[in-house]
């Protein structure tokens, strides 16, 4: 069976290969936008004016994974909203706002680790809730969310477009395991799925957010005119698919299995991302910025990061034991021929703030 | 170290010893009150009148464990509230209510199993949220809950009273592992802790519930004049403590370790329970019923049930491997000298409905 409409969380637990120990790349991007998010809230958030009687402020992280980045991101928002509320109500002795934070991810996300590793209740300024469910659909009641955020999530599609498994289709993706932009019809199929998914994502959030509510999104896109196979994540994914073919030769897996494996991942072009956002008329774009990712990378670092992100989906398709063998092979290949980050085309980090009208 | 202010969830996962496969006793009691809860909601729930613009109805199960009883109990409430809302709004085309259900338990509860085993979102009429935190304290915002329920939970104290570990205290509990009412000072220490905990429990719920909101509680208490050592749960617990002493002889554990082990569990007398409820002036008692538990019991059944409930706390104190050995011993002892349920004094199931003024 092809790997399609299933759900694959980041690697749970807290060992060396877990997502919680391999998410500093994502954290670096979150840190980068922290001050801007804070300034935006302080200057422009108008929910508190629209709802002068507001007692509980609800923040949701859509696709939070098992931490710890999510705790950091929500605390930054709470600090800013608190300050804003305090400034506004200096003189009239209003009760302090109470905060609740909803941590959303797929039902098979490792919520146990999330709950065990969150700041203890004595140090937390918010009530903590876990919300299991796909964000490609409603996960919370209408008009219940004041600020939503999502970091590095919507590149995960709800499913792999089916044509890419079909040998008779011009969109057949051969033994590639990602949309690397080498086959035009594959790119087209992924783009169609991405556009559908973003439409559903934004429609669901539009229902969940209160008027004046903010949706803050952080992620990765590709500059117009750049191809995935020219960027380091695209190059690394193609190396992983080469290594799968290598270990197939020694019988650990088969070429047929590799042909039935494609990642439900699509990094949109900048123009595609903007198009997908603009089609939803319930939101106005308050801020849109792009930047290069500021972090210094090494081949070892990106290998560990991709292992934490991909091990669940790889294990699920190929079975136990393949992950170790595969990433040993990837490490060997990279130690002989490391990726030269200087020579790769840049992808972009985007930071967008949308306001619910 | 004595086992005191820690938290010990029911046995997680879904194997033969898990709580989800050993909670039919609790389910039988929940079933017993289903129709009465339903009738009460249909006839007397007035939240919908107090909040005519209500869009989202929030139900919380405090101390839900890992399922499946909780899903059954909340569905019953949702069905009744829906019917009531429909009857009330037959003619004026009001939008249907949306429901959110918060599943609360300690942060080390097995939420992963809870989320994986809940009804799939396509069949669920509510948004599902997990709330990790001790119910002896606030876990949700002020005025945010319409109906709270709690089943077989408040006998779990926030901690064991410390005197029961102190050899010099008249409240020393020797090698007993429960409050079996054989030592008056031990009973007194447990009663003080129960009264404190119930006060905190009810104060927290009073803050979380909206005016007119209901708190439905189901649990077990002891008729005035009956002692725990005369009831089958008390007898079984004393057998478990005897068996701990037996396996200590073979070196699996030590008498010193047993002396440092006491369960944070207290089943109040009926009058103590009523006293604890009545001291909170924010609630009115709308219904209070007691009954005998209707289920036919066998020695095997109660052994499996107690194993599911106690294995985490036993393992935590005595270490790996003791649970198997201990319950083998309990089974042997019971097969030679089974508990005769006919001869035990009855304990009571209570069902109380409180309304937030």
From TrEMBL, chains A, B:
GO terms for molecular function: metal ion binding; methyltransferase activity. InterPro entries: MeTrfase_7, MeTrfase_capping, SAM-dependent_MTases_sf. The keyword S-adenosyl-L-methionine applies. One of its GO terms (biological process) is methylation. Keywords: Magnesium, Metal-binding, Methyltransferase, S-adenosyl-L-methionine, Transferase. PANTHER family: S-ADENOSYL-L-METHIONINE:CARBOXYL METHYLTRANSFERASE FAMILY PROTEIN. This is S-adenosylmethionine-dependent methyltransferase.
């Amino acid at each position: 069976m092809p790997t399609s409409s299933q759900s694959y969380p980041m690697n749970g637990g807290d060992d060396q290969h877990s997502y919680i120990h391999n998410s500093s790349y994502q954290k670096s991007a979150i840190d980068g936008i922290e001050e801007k998010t804070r300034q935006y809230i302080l200057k422009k958030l108008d929910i508190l004016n629209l709802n002068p009687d507001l007692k509980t402020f609800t923040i949701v992280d859509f696709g939070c994974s098992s931490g710890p980045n999510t705790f950091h991101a929500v605390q930054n928002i709470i600090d800013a909203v608190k300050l804003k509320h305090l400034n506004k109500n200096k003189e009239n002795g209003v009760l302090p706002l109470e905060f609740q934070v909803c941590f959303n991810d797929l039902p098979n996300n490792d919520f146990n680790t999330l709950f065990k590793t969150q700041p203890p209740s004595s140090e937390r300024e918010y009530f903590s809730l876990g919300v299991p469910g796909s964000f490609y659909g409603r996960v919370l009641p209408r008009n219940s969310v004041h600020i939503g955020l999502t970091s590095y999530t919507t590149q995960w599609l709800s499913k792999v477009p089916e044509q890419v498994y079909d040998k008779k289709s011009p969109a057949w993706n051969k033994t590639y395991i990602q949309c690397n932009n080498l086959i035009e019809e594959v790119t087209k199929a992924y783009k169609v799925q991405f556009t559908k998914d973003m439409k559903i994502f934004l429609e669901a959030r539009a229902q969940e957010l209160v008027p004046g509510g903010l949706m803050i999104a952080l992620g990765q896109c590709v500059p117009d005119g750049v191809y995935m196979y020219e960027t380091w994540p695209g190059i690394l994914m193609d190396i992983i698919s080469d290594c799968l073919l290598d270990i197939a030769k020694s019988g650990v897996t088969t070429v047929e299995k590799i042909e039935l494996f494609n990642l439900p991942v699509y990094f949109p072009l900048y123009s595609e991302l903007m198009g997908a956002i603009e089609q939803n008329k319930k939101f106005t774009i308050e801020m849109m910025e792009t930047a290069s990712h500021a972090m210094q990378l090494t081949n070892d670092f990106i290998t560990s990061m991709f292992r934490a992100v991909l091990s669940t989906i790889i294990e699920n398709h190929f079975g136990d034991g393949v992950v170790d063998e595969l990433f040993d092979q990837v490490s060997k290949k990279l130690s002989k021929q490391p990726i030269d980050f200087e020579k790769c085309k840049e992808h972009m980090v985007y930071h967008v703030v949308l306001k619910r009208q």
